[in-house]
Every structure is written in C-alpha cells, then in structure tokens.
Write a structure and sequence with these properties.
Helix content is 67%, strand content 3%. With 414 residues, it is mostly helical. α3 packs across α5, α8 packs across α9 and α12 packs across α13.
Amino acid sequence: MKFAEQRFLKYFLLTLFGLVLIFTRRPDAFLNPQFWAEDGRNWFAQAYNNSVLTALFTPEAGYFQTISRIIAAVAQIFPFEFAPLIFNLSAIGIKMSVAGFLLSKRLSNLLPDTPLRFFAAFIYLALPHSYETHANLTNAQWHLAFLAFLIIIAAPSEKTTGKIFDFAAVSLSAVCGPFFLFFAPICALKFWIDGDQKTIGLVLILSFGCAIQAISIFVFPHNRPTVPRGASLDLFFKIIGGHWFLSAIVGEKGFEFLQNRSIWKNGGSVFVTFFGFAILIYAFLKSKIEMRLLLVFASLIIAAALVSPAISNDIPQWQAMSFPPVGVRYWLVPIFCFLLALFWLARTDKNRFVRGFASVLLIAMPIGIVADWRFPPYKNLDFLRHAAEFRSAETGAEITIPINPDWEMRLKKK
C-alpha cells in the first residue's frame, strides 16, 4: 500500500472512530435531529424571514455570530426537514476539527508525543460535563474558538491547504462571539516570546475581527440579563470547585451527587478549589510556553464568565451558576485544560509525588467519562410533523414550531 493510501486510510479510520464516539453519546442528534435554542429561533428563522444577507449582518447579544449565520444560509438551500440535521452535522464537524488538530504534529510543543496527542483528542470527544456544547450549532462557537487558539500556538503549516485552513478558522472565530477578548493577550504574548511572522498575520486578522465586534457592541443595541451577579466567596468556591475541578474527574452526575452533601457544603468545595488551583499553578510554573498559554486562555474564559455571565433571568447569576447543569459551555476549555495538565504532569514531571498524585486523579477520571457518557436526548417535539405542516401552509401564514429547550421558532411562509 502506498504512503498516500496509508495516510488516507489512517485519517478515515480516525474520523470514523470519532464519529462513532460522538454518535454513542447522543444518537438522537443523527437519528432524530431537532433545533436547539438559537439554532432555530435566531439563526434559521432570521435567515428565512429576513433574507440571508440581512441575517448575516445582524448581531446577537451585541456580537456577530458568523459561523451560525453561514450554516443557516446553507440550510436554506435544502428542504426544511433537513435543516436541523445540517446544523447538527456542522457543529459535529467543527468539534471533530478540534480533535483532528489535536492529533497534528504541529502541536508537538504542547503535545510532544503520539500517546499524548491521542489522549488529548479522545478526551476532547469524551469530555465529561459537556452536554450543552455537544452537537448544537449555537455552542459550536466554543469549539471554533478553541481551534483558533490551537492554531495560534501551533507551529506554522508548510502546506498551502494548511495555511488556508488556519486563515479560515481564525477569521471565522474572530467574528463569532466575544472570543477576540481572549485571543488578543494570547497573540500578544506569543508574538512577544517568539516574534514569528505567522503570529503577526494572526494578530492582524484578530485585530480586524476585534474592531468589527467592538463596533457592533457600541453601535447595535443588545440585551443582557439584568439580574445581578450575586457574587460571594462561598459561591466562588462552589462554582470553581464544582464545575472546573470536581466535574473533570467525577463528571456532572458526580457533581450533582455531592452538591447537596454536607461534606461539599462544609469545606469540600474550598478544599477541591485550592487543590485544583495548586495543580494548575504548579503545571504553569513547570511547563513550556504553549501549556502556559493554554492555562492563561482557560483562566481568561473563567474570569469573563464570572464577571459577565449570561445565564439567568430570575435568580442571581452566580447562584444559578453554582448548579451543575447550568452554564456548562463556559467549562469546555477549562476542564480539558485541567485534564491535559494532569496527564502532562503524570508523564513528564520529575517529582515522584506529583507524578503519583496526578496519576491517581487520572485513574479516577473514567468515573466522570462513564457517568456522563450518554447525554439525555432532546425532548421529542416531532419536528418532522411540524415541518410537513409548514410545507403545506399557505403563503404568508405565520407558523410557530416548538424547539428545544422549551423555545419557539416563528416562520412566515414564503
């Protein structure tokens, strides 16, 4: 078998394996696809009702959400009943791109050997406490942002296709949500350290995206929850300890089990938080620049989530965030970062005690993966029946279609 054929077969098998993992976590994303939240109410409905171009340049929550708008535009080409599947497959493709990039040798400074790269890719697809970011386009921007970060810290591609891929991914991420706030300091640090020309190009791309998003924030009106943060030290420990560190090991279900136990309320959350931060600080001091930048990136996400959360419309934001299923999207990158830091310490640290402690946590990690593996399916709202009714409706009729999670999508039949 020729080298090119072997390479194609390897990538084909890895892609198939990744899709099987994703399928087993929530089969209904493939077998009974339905719109999720903004996927239907905003991205598809606005592209259909207001035209594709109008929707493309319409900010949401103050920011442009370009990738979601593009997929919604593409979905207009196909029969309506296929739209949720197109959204789901697009979101899955973005997530698979991150896993594929983690396997790349371009990340050898962060992931120096093949076992570590395979571990990283598998963990990303098997991540516990990640239900909200699985197979829906609304939250695919978090995967796209992480992909852009990996491109920023990776070695530059020598191939034209790789350079095009880098440009497209970073450009899209720059105009998808508020992530430019996190990329700016990362790019500045990377350029200050190595000063390579690739970083300059990425800085220019991100600067352009930053300008667009900043103008959007100041020019276009946007609504954010007016409920106060309700910050407190006790809630800080419960949020950080539970979402970031505890869920990484025992999963969301383990977090839910411990949340109302006296051991968690009476010092358990403080203990877990301090130990988690100790691990991350130690990893930061001992690791290379790429791992340090990953830790900085994760910390910036958490800081932004705590300072300006958009979660609740009735109870204080931090109080809502202390519950296990709430705001899960904020913890995708931080949990991955924590698990990767543990694996890195277990493999490379010279201190026997640190290696042993990190190894014990990694041995316990399958608890969370297994507990959180099968995500609950979306509520079956019989989308195909509603799609058939919409198709047979008279021109000009306004059709209301229920979508998950207890939202509605309104379409005016053309």
